[in-house]
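Input (RNA-binding protein):
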Amino acid sequence: MSKIYVGNLPFSVTEDSLRALFAQHGSVDSVALINDRETGQPRGFGFVEMPRADAARAIQSLNGQDMGGRALKVNEAQDKPRGGGGGQWRR
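Output:
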């Protein structure tokens, strides 16, 4: 299973429309669009999970493709590094 990062999405995109786009390249297991915690507004990126071979095809085909006037940024998702947390720096 591969997790794919999809960036530069138009704010009008829905999970269904993103699923349909990626389904042209194979089986889609999950789709998640990311919203701002405070406003609930779309942040312009999301994640798609697909089997490895399908994900490779989708990345190859969709990276740079126009969607709603925006060139999509599509690549394999990288794990977010775990930060130290919100403590205050002290001497």
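Strands lie at 2-7, 30-35, 42-50, 66-67, 70-71, 73-76.
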